[in-house]
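Tokens for chain A. Residues wanted.
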């Protein structure tokens, strides 16, 4: 029987490092654009310049991925794979439309990495809305002996099986890991 493990997509470089790589590459492009005539970039330096553009595109894609989907968790089951595919389709559609054109303009014409990061944030809410429906399916309640008050009534703890966190503070939406609570004699209530 296969275990239903939590899947975190393989991202080789941390988000901050990816942003710094993108800054370095865009700064290199800006220097080339300012110091080398356009005709030479299209002839004598065509291959290295096109390689630089491809590196910027690849790095920008990694930054987009990490800042939208890369930090989300998915189980290796049909629902997790379906949610992940839905998010990838969403990002690909956005990238091929106006969002992608504006991203390219921010990076290639304006050399504005911070603007690009802010632009990514404009679609993060939509990504989280798609993922949240999947995430909510993994919220259950736990009743423990300390959850039950004197009259036998009490508030259960809310636990998310996907992130393995308990809701600690509803008002501030604070979630924390408490593996010791899972080892208690608990009963799942939903």
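Reply:
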């Amino acid at each position: 029987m296969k275990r239903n493990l939590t899947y975190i997509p393989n991202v080789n470089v941390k988000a901050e490092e990816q942003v710094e790589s993108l800054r370095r590459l865009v700064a290199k492009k800006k220097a080339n654009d300012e110091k080398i005539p356009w005709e030479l970039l299209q002839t004598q330096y065509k291959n290295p310049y096109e390689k630089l553009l491809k590196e910027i595109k690849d790095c920008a894609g990694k930054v987009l991925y990490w800042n939208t989907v890369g930090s989300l968790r998915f189980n290796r089951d049909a629902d997790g794979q379906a949610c992940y595919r839905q998010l990838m389709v969403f990002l690909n559609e956005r990238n091929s439309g106006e969002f992608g054109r504006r991203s390219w303009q921010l990076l290639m014409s304006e050399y504005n990495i911070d603007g690009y990061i802010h632009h990514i944030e404009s679609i993060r809410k939509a990504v989280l809305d798609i993922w949240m429906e999947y995430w909510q399916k993994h919220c259950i309640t736990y009743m423990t002996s300390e959850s039950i008050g004197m009259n036998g009534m009490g508030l259960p703890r809310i636990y998310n099986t996907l992130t393995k966190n308990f809701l600690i503070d509803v008002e501030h939406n604070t979630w924390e890991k408490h593996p010791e609570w899972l080892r208690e004699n608990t009963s799942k209530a939903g």
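The chain has a mean pLDDT of 82. The longest strand covers residues 139-143.
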